[in-house]
């Protein structure tokens, strides 16, 4: 082991020269070539706040699926959806789902909740002190809200949930965050609110932690499934029987029976949701559009519901209770990610709910397509045809 530090420039570390120096350092130490890693088209000067020790890029293939027809409140019309993936058949499968839902008149999407959390925990000598503190918090919400608002122009503290356990009180601060994902915003605002609490509460507080982990940041939880984190968005469609039989080569009854069977299997396995593969579509769009990819952990949890209608058609809905997306800030302003957002008409202010509706509709298409491939026994043949690149 060399023990040498990775080269950094004290003057300006976000230059092509600084990146090239780091590539040479890694190449000399490892013997590996970073030729392709060093090929990129943007100015490294745009990267502060996105990465440290910038050395180059990892290029992901991007394909567009579509057209996707969305009948949303924020997303309306046809969209071609960028998906960054290395999994063959993925774009083709989502495109198939988009084709059949478009033939059915499109997908209806609805955002029903929108909030980002930070959850500090306050620790006391006993449970009664914690209870009394909870009463004080409820009585002083406006003062707490005013302190939080001093740190942000676009975020707003909506409400504070309280959860008692032992001699602790966990507070779940809920913020609206505009078009940013809002994790950092919520953390900064909650820190300011907690400082105000410490200055103004005169009871017997022992200590506090800014994160008590009940917000379950970048982890799946039942809390976020029930209470939402990010956007809670629902996508739904009714597929006519004739369309299901012609395009998916199955009947609504066969599709419904397969859902029942797979849900039982997922229950036995202890799966955290009853979706088919929502993480596939979400991750692919997240990477293409500059989202925080770790948020797939929360965002992929889905609540799928299907039924055969009295007319014999097939109703399918997907609820994403914790879809965390942004159209401003983070990685959304980087070169290729910005282009992909612009292709969706989703870059900048006022577009986060539109992007959420497009992603939810995309997930629905993938659920329908893969579910049908399993029923019609086309799953393996499709992967053999499109997903094998081994020599």
From TrEMBL:
In terms of Pfam families, this protein maps to: HMG-CoA_red
Question: Gene3D superfamilies from the entry?
Answer: 3-hydroxy-3-methylglutaryl-coenzyme A Reductase, Chain A, domain 2 (3.90.770.10), Hydroxymethylglutaryl-CoA reductase, class I/II, NAD/NADP-binding domain (3.30.70.420)
The signal sequence is: none
Q: Report the enzyme's class at the first EC level.
A: oxidoreductase
In terms of SUPFAM superfamilies, this protein maps to: NAD-binding domain of HMG-CoA reductase (SSF55035), Substrate-binding domain of HMG-CoA reductase (SSF56542)
Mind listing the GO molecular function terms for this protein? hydroxymethylglutaryl-CoA reductase (NADPH) activity
EC number(s) in its UniProt entry?
1.1.1.34
InterPro entries linked: HMG_CoA_Rdtase, HMG_CoA_Rdtase_cat_sf, HMG_CoA_Rdtase_eu_arc, HMG_CoA_Rdtase_NAD(P)-bd_sf, HMG_CoA_Rdtase_sub-bd_dom_sf
Q: Which UniProt keywords apply?
A: NADP, Oxidoreductase
* One of the GO BP terms on file: coenzyme A metabolic process
Q: Which domain of life is it from?
A: Bacteria
Tell me which family the UniProt entry assigns to this protein: Belongs to the HMG-CoA reductase family.
User: What protein am I looking at?
Assistant: hydroxymethylglutaryl-CoA reductase (NADPH)
Per the UniProt entry, what species is this protein from, by scientific name?
Mangrovimicrobium sediminis
